[in-house]
Amino acid sequence: MAFDELLHSIAKLESDIASGPIVPAVTPQEIRSYLAARYDFAKPLALDDVGADVERMLRRWQVHVTHPRYFGLFNPSVTPASVVGDTLAAMYNPQLATWRTSPAANEIERHSLAWLTGKLGFPAESAASFTSGGAEANLSAVVVALTRAFPGYGERGLRGLSASPTIYLTGEAHHSFSKIAHMTGLGREAIRPVATDANLKMDIADLARRVVEDRRRGLAPFLVVGTAGTTGAGVIDPLPELGRFCRSEALWFHADAAWGGAAILSPRLRSCLAGVDSADSITCDAHKWFSVPMAAGMFFCRHPDAVGAAFRVETSYMPGKTAGGVRDPYTTSVQWSRRFIGLKLFLALAHHGESGYVQMIEHQARMGDVLRASLGRVGWRVVNTTPLPVVCFTRDGLDTGKFLAALYQRQIAWMSEVRLGGGAPVVRACITSFRTTEADIEWVVREMDRLIEVTT
Known about the structure:
Radius of gyration: 23 Å
Strand content: 5-15%
Oligomer: single chain
CATH architecture of the domain at 94-346: 3-Layer(aba) Sandwich
Distance between the termini: 57 Å
Number of helices: 14
Structural class: alpha/beta
Order of helices and strands: HHHHHEHHEHEHEHEEEHHEEHEEH
C-alpha cells in the first residue's frame, strides 16, 4: 500500500495548523445547535460530505495541540509514521486479547516493549503491556502491588486484610491515584501526602516518618509513588533514594514517568532519571514525549509472576494456550479486547530510529532552555527547577487569568495556569512539539511582553 497521499495530507494539515489560530472561540450551545441541525441520523449521508464537515469542525472548534505555539499539557505534535500506524491498525482492526488471533500484532508490540524495557534498565523477563494511558498503567501498578503485598487480596478483597493499605506520594504527583484509590476500594484516605522540599521533590525524611507513624497506627503501607516529571512543574523525585528506602522497608516502588520516561533515550537527560531502574514498576506514555497519537500508555513491571497473579482469568470461549509459553494479553493486563496500540510507536521508532528520537527530545529540552532565558531577559521570574521543558513563570502584579485570556484572544500561544505547592497561580508553559523553533519562542515572549501593559 502506498501512503504518499496520506503523508501529503498530513504535511498540508501541519502547515495549515501552524499558520492558523490555536484557540477556538466557541460555546457548547453553538456546537450542539450545529450538530442538531445537521445530524438526526434519520437517513444516510455521503461519507465524503460528513468527513469534510467533521474536519471543518475539528479545524474550527479545537485547541490545536499540534501547533508549534501550543505550550500546554502533554499533548504532542505527532510523527507522520505514527499516523500511518493508527491508520493501519484501524484498517485491519486486530484484536490483541490473545496471541492466536493476532500473532503479528502481538509480536510487534512485544518487540517494541522489550526494546524500551532494556532502555529503562529492567530485566529482560519483565512484564510489559500497552495501556489506554498513564491512568490505566498507574491502576495496573496499584493492583499488582496489592496482589503481591497481600496474598489474600485477590480472592477476598480488602475485607480479607487485617489492616488498611496506604499509598505514599506528594501533592505534585498525578491525581489519577486519587481516582485509583476510590476504584480499587482502598478509599481516597489511603493516599498519604508526603511533604516536598524547596524544589517540590519528595522529602524522604517525611516519607520515612509517615510510614513509621502509619504502621504504629495499625495501617499497612505498601506502595510509594515517585514521579519522574510532574505535570505541574516537571519535578523529578529523588528516585535512587526512593529505591533504597522502599527496598529497606519492603515497599513497592512505582515510578510514574508518564511524560519524563522518554528522556531515558537522551544522553543529555538520562542521568536525570538515574534510579528509575530500581523501581518495581514504571508508567510511561508513548502519546506524550514519544509523539504518537493518543491513546498509547505503557506499563512495565519487573515482577511478571505478580502481574500474572493480578490479572489471571480462565475462560472456555477464548483460544487455548499458545505454544512457546506466550501469555495472552487478556491474562496479563487490565484490558480484555484491545486495539493494536503499539503499532504507531513501532512505526515511529522504525522510521526515526533511536537517533531521531534523541534529536527530537533534546531539541524540545533546548527549547525549554531558550524559553527560560528569553523570559529572564524581559523581567519574568521562573519559579520551577527542572531539566525538562516545563517552564512556570510569573512577575509582580500579574493577573494570571486576565493574562491568559488575552494570550488566547490574540492567538499568541496556548499556556495554562498552575499552583505549585499550594502557592499563588503562575503561568505554565511546556514545549510539547518537535516543530517548535527558537523563532516561535522569541516571538511569543515579545508578544507576551506587550500584553503586560493591559493585564497588570
